[in-house]
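Record format v2
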Amino acid sequence: MSYIIDGESGPWEIVIGLEVHAQIMSNAKLFSAAATAFGAEPNAQVSFIDAGFPGMLPVINRECVSQAVRTGLGLNANVNLWSRFDRKNYFYADLPQGYQISQYAHPIIGEGAIDIELADGSTKTIGITRLHLEQDAGKSQHDQHPTKSFIDLNRSGVALMEIVSEPDMRSPEEAGAYLTKLRQIMRYLGTCDGNMDEGSLRADVNVSVRKAGEGFRTRCEVKNVNSIRFVMQAVEAEARRQIEVWEAGGRVDQETRLFDTGRGITRSMRSKEDAHDYRYFPDPDLPPLVIDAAFVESLKAALPELPDQRRARYVRDYGIPPYDAHVLTLERETAAYYETVAKGRDAKQAANWVMGDLFAAINRTKTSIAEPPVTAPDLGALLDLMADGTLSGKLAKEVFEAMVETGRAPGAIVEDRGLKQVTDSGAIEAVIDQVLAANADKVAEYRSGKDKLFGFFVGQTMKAMQGKGNPALVNDVLKQKLS
Amino acid sequence: MHATDFTLGGALAALNEGAISAEELTRAHVAAVEALNPKLNAFITTTSEQALEAARASDARRKRGEAGPLEGIPLAIKDLFCTEGVRTTAGSTILGNFIPPYESTVTAQLKRDGAVFLGKANLDEFAMGSSNLTSAYGGVLNPWQRKDDPDARLVPGGSSGGSAAAVAARIALGATGTDTGGSIRQPAAFCGITGIKPTYGRCSRFGIVAFASSLDQAGPFARTVEDCAILLRSMAGHDPKDSTSANQPVPNFAAACARSVKGLRIGVPREYRLDGMPAEIEKLWRQGLDWLRDAGAETVDISLPHTKYALPTYYIVAPAEASSNLARYDGVRFGLRVAEKDSDLGDLYERTRAEGFGAEVRRRIMIGTYVLSAGYYDAYYLKAQKIRALIAGDFDAAWAKVDAIVTPATPSAAFAEGENTDDPVQMYLNDVFTVTANLAGLPGLALPTGLDHQGLPLGLQVIGRAFDEETVFAVGAALERTADFKAVPAMRAGA
């Protein structure tokens, strides 16, 4: 099912490729020992290396290399045992060395592919061109002083993975699904926290449009889009702009653009003509990065279960529908929660409770799966109380709400409120006898063929028992007495 | 005997015997610096007070039985090595006010071993030059004089001109230098002293202001081969802070100076016999080879066929790296900042760098920027890298036949200020015998073995296998013993 924009001249297809910058989760920077935590005081996490002082030299952080390899493995990609760092030369106030160290010609990770899931339940494979390691720049702040710019070098030298996709996406939805999947994989791996609002994940979106059966037309790059929603909006806005240009008889120029989130349009940032000449050349301060196959194997062996594998396992082992498995594995925390609840219990029922009542409660209480309103063991205990007949489904919902409110365990709530379901058939019989005696006329009507009155007797019995009667037992005893 | 006349080894012995204290030794050198530096301009910054304080601390350590291998030895430090709390200029206006908050690994190791620093030695700006005349702090006077023209102001060579002049004039017992294309060996030869550029990776580059990272290497100057060996042992060693530093054990280089050269095969590369080379240099070279044969070595004619491409290759690779390494001098975080009230960022860069860098540095930044530019990269930088590999391959092939190579150190004796300055290419030719060792990463030692007709020192160069400085020292020491070079410069302490 393809996504088409109908222009005046007919239908247009969108071609999208993404370059994603993902900040590596590591304690230290790519080439220095300075810390990387988000939100520190400006210039509090800067070594002389990050500040480009004379005579300072970069030394590669082994953990950052491991993180890149893990990510590469998670993207089903080739790991290059030999890679190299180049210098990308340009002047800017927040680039202290006057160059960025980046793997331009020889990246550590080569071609790979990931599957994305679409709303209609289908999946699509998106090719990964490469992943390479590079340094982040510092941050310029132009709004702190009327005539001065401020520079914060905390981010300078932080390790980034640039992940480049093939131009395989054809709709805003696919672009969004790709970024979602990429983030999901890296979060599972613990290689990038994926916090787009903190800038640890940013996307450059390459967009072009074409008529059916054509080759690629000129693309434009929309820089630094910082949410999945904006990526999808930027694709749509840029595609419509290009279609307008082509249909007006113009040409789309290759250029770098920015997405104006307020107005929902893209604006030109710089054209190809004023593109920098970055004068890339191998960084003579760093020998080639050589890793061995055993190192890669050891990382591979220690890799956590990835979303696709986990989803397949849920379908296979828990017998839940693929959609449920997809939803429950989107976040690693959700999956862990679900597994705690499902373990040794009715897995489908567990899925319903997590995706239904729990998600609703999280939304309502504005909490998260990481700090849920009801803990997984407590929800499991609630399911156990239903399984052993202590609680009816209806009572269980009540207890769950009480758990959300009070944070207490279900057993304690049941005890306190006397909510325990009555499963003593003698007690039920006694109540039913009273109900039938009080409604002798209705009993006569029922016996003369008015079957529909059965529900009335159930209702009266439950009412008399304040809802605590075991529904199945109530049914059985009523049928018996009325026969 | 004057206290400044000691060799480094001799001074260590005298200190050990208690014949002299570190304070006395340093005081003699400080006095010599104060007397001669106004003429020589060998130091950009002198640190006499700190030196005397360090000397007293050294005497105390010796008294406690904690003497290091260089305990109490006064040295000059090329002003390219960052020294904590002491201004480090790199010979440039752009770093005129830069006081590093850190110490280079090499100088930290020298301090660890007890050395005393007299000050920061003059150099060509960012180590770019062969005369010391590109220094923003003025040229350095070579303490030697021409017989026929004693008033001619001779250059000490470069870029480590201040270091070489200080050691030659006996105002320092030894000195550190750096060598990117000959910046230790050429000034050593011009000033009649000994200097070695060790194997690339032997000494850490951490804290040394970078010129061309793949070529830069620190090394010592001294007045004897053995003294260089003693200094190098303290300077060398693996440093985890420099990714290009080699994890190789540091041998006792001084012990290697006593090794016999009997049976060693000495290569004589035919490509180093240049057209128009002065006969004196040719004669000096032949004489050196005769001496080595007399000492039991065998000389072997060899070919290093890509030698003729070495100089152009060097003058592409070094400026390319420099153009990138020097980008950090932008007026934003340290050093000089030149800006007008209404300057924007681009204007700040232009003013700061135009005023902060001298003509030779600007020239090399432009050459380097050009050869790395889109459209020129393949024709210049990439081709130069390929030739660099071929030059290294020439040496690899040679090592199958010989154990060391002996060549002249320079194509001429020291020239005077004003000579060689019209045409930068003429100046670059000074490096013709030395750049190959940098391109191939090999150790090269220069030592004086004779005088020219003007009474100026001339030097030979010994090149060895990577990390085989020991053989280089053995051959150098053998040449030194026979040459018995006793000439002294006109301008010197105690004269």
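Residues 77 and 120 of chain B are 5 Å apart (CA to CA).
The first strand of chain B starts at residue 43 and ends at 46.
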